[in-house]
Amino acid sequence: MPTIPGIHHVTAITGPAQANVSFYTGVLKQRLVKKTVNFDDPGTYHLYYGDAAGSPGTILTFFPFAGAEAGHAGPGMASAYAYAVPAAQFAVLQDDLAARALHPQLSTRFGARVLTVKDPDGAPVELIEDASAPDMHGFHSVTLWERDPDATARLLTEAFGYTATGTERTPAGERLRLTAAGSERGRIIDIFRSDVPVVPQPGAGTIHHIAFRAETQADQDEWIEKLRTFGHRTTPVIDRQYFNAIYFREPGGVLFEIATDPPGFAVDESPETLGQALKLPAQYEPMRARIEAALPPLKVPA
Question: Name one GO molecular function term (predicted).
Answer without folding.
Answer: dioxygenase activity
